[in-house]
Design goal:
single chain; alpha+beta; PmbA/TldD fold; 2 domains; seven-stranded antiparallel beta sheet; five-stranded mixed beta barrel; globular
């Protein structure tokens, strides 16, 4: 892999030079400001189904995007050709587009003093074996093992293995040009099981920067089989109002709605149920959420955001109180605030949690619903109304009794967030937001 990394580093240097060239051309053509970025990735994706290779794809993508500003008019263009002629043509096109757009006083670069002119090495690139032979072996091992685990597993919806590596470069006319290497490996398996003429489907997956940090193919298969078989015999339940646990792998979606509500676009459009919530208590007082963008090897780590703004460790929520909005430079100017380093998303959110396992959370809940799957998009970010299809398990006396399906859970996100009872220690780190299972005091369940 050393050779592959050296090749990536060489390409990174060449792309940085292309970005510098594009910015110089933009200045020569009279742009008051300009910014340029490219995220380049290459690798392999393999899919198998029922023990046979179904797809083998080699991917290589990444275009140089250039944006120019002329007195708050904005124009953008892109090119996959990094020759001087192609770059000049793209910059010319961006300048031409800018001349025909309306001026927006909030357009422009993030402030120069926020640029990440110095940034740490976060060890985000660990190229994996991208040979077809290795990728096929991983997918087939996973799926074939899964199909031997239980006679009720009657079909496979496929196993997929992917390995990609590349880099990200961003530069602007403040004199900032930054870049870093990155990689990602993943393996997943989807199974179908049948019992009493009724079928259920579920899956498992693993993702990491390093190949060595992935779960073994057999572990993924066994997890997929366990999840799928557990759903057999699912029932409907009566309509009720009971405590609910969002299992760790779906709990991140609950906080995802909060993220959307405190993001700049929804705030300046006044389409957020957390409008004017800065400095207000929106979560329980025992709950703190800390962002750590510089977590070495983290899946959501980055030294700077998509506008070159330096990222930093900070509390997003402290003792339940909202400490910051999530603002791009455009949103920040709209709201008369400062960009927060979130152009492109969040970075390794970690939250305080109890020392209780999922089983102990069920015991604490006593009687209620454990949600393991959410469906639909019934969320109103303006007023926080929440209603989504769900599946999972019915819990009584602190123990799982049977799987349930075809139900709807409903509440209001403001109340749901404030009334979180506990978070388990079963933290799922496969997302940008790291959370364990979340116990809520009560939600409405629509069943039979």
């Amino acid at each position: 892999m050393k050779l592959q990394r050296e090749q990536l580093e060489q390409q990174l240097g060449q792309v940085k030079q292309a970005v510098s060239e594009a910015l110089d051309i933009a200045r020569q053509l009279g742009a008051s400001d300009a910014e340029c970025s490219i995220s380049k990735s290459s690798g392999i994706s393999v899919g198998t189904r029922m023990g046979e290779v179904e797809t083998v794809e080699f991917n290589q993508d990444g275009a140089l995007g250039i944006t120019v500003y002329r007195d708050h008019q904005k124009g953008s263009a892109s090119t996959t050709d990094l020759s001087t002629e192609a770059i000049r043509a793209a910059v010319n096109k961006a300048c031409e587009i800018a001349r025909h757009t309306s001026a927006d006083p909030y357009n422009g670069l993030a402030p120069k003093e926020l640029m990440a002119f110095e940034y740490p090495e976060l060890e985000l690139c660990h190229p994996g074996d991208q040979s077809p032979e290795y990728a096929i072996e991983q997918a087939l091992r996973c799926e074939r093992h899964a199909l031997t685990l239980d006679k009720r597993i009657i079909n496979s919806d496929g196993a997929h293995y992917g390995s990609h590596s590349g880099f990200k470069v961003y530069g602007n006319s403040h004199g900032f040009i930054g870049g870093y290497l990155q990689s990602r490996q993943n393996l997943s398996c989807v199974l179908i099981a049948e019992q009493d003429g009724k079928m259920q489907r579920d899956m498992s997956y693993t993702v990491a920067r390093r190949t060595d940090d992935l779960l073994a193919a057999e572990q993924v298969a066994e997890q997929a089989a366990e999840e799928t078989l557990a759903r057999l015999g699912a029932r409907k339940i009566d309509t009720a109002k009971v405590p609910v646990i969002f299992r760790a792998d779906v709990a991140s979606s609950l906080f995802g709605h909060m993220i959307a509500a405190i993001s700049g676009g929804n705030l300046y459009r006044k389409s957020s149920f957390l409008l004017d919530a800065l400095g207000e208590t929106i979560l329980p007082e025992w709950l703190t959420i800390t962002e750590d963008p510089h977590l070495v090897g983290g899946l959501a780590s980055t030294p700077f955001d998509n506008e070159g703004v330096a990222t930093r460790k900070q509390d997003i929520i402290k003792a339940g109180v909202l400490q910051t909005y999530l603002l791009t430079s455009y949103a920040a100017r709209k709201l008369d605030r400062t960009p927060t380093g979130h152009a492109g998303g969040i970075h390794n959110w970690r939250m305080t949690h109890s020392d209780k396992s999922l089983q102990q959370l069920c015991q604490q809940m006593g009687k209620g619903l454990l949600v393991t799957e959410l469906m639909g998009q019934g969320v109103n970010l303006v007023n926080g109304d929440y209603s989504r299809g769900a599946a999972g398990f019915w819990v009584e006396n602190g123990e799982i009794q049977y799987p349930v399906e075809e139900i709807t859970i409903a509440g209001n996100l403001k109340d749901m967030l404030r009334n979180i009872v506990a978070i388990g220690n079963d933290t799922d780190t496969r997302h940008a937001l790291h959370t364990g299972s979340v116990l809520l005091d009560e939600l409405r369940i629509a069943g039979v």
